Amino acid sequence: MSDQTKLPPIIEPWRIIAIILAVATAMMFVHSVTPTQAEAVSAQPALLRAR
Fold it and tell me: What is the mean pLDDT of each run of 10 residues along the chain (51 residues)?
């Protein structure tokens, strides 16, 4: 039984690192928007403003 082929890992380490970096980047981007900048954005959708 010990001669069975080893199964590959479910998620490779490089994919885990890539996911962590993507999440960290998204969190930093969201955190960089201050409440003042968020209030400056109009509540009206862009499609309605173009008319």
Answer: 72 92 92 72 61 51
pTM assigned to the model: 0.52
Q: Which two tokens stand for residue 48?
A: 């309605």
> How many whole angstroms separate alpha carbon 17 and alpha carbon 4?
29
Nearest Cα to 22, choosing from 34, 12, 14, 32?
Answer: 14
The residue written with tokens 């981007």 in the block is 29
- Kindly give the residue spans of alpha helices, DSSP state H, lying in 1-51: 13-32, 35-40, 46-49
Distance CA(12)–CA(50), nearest Å, equals: 46
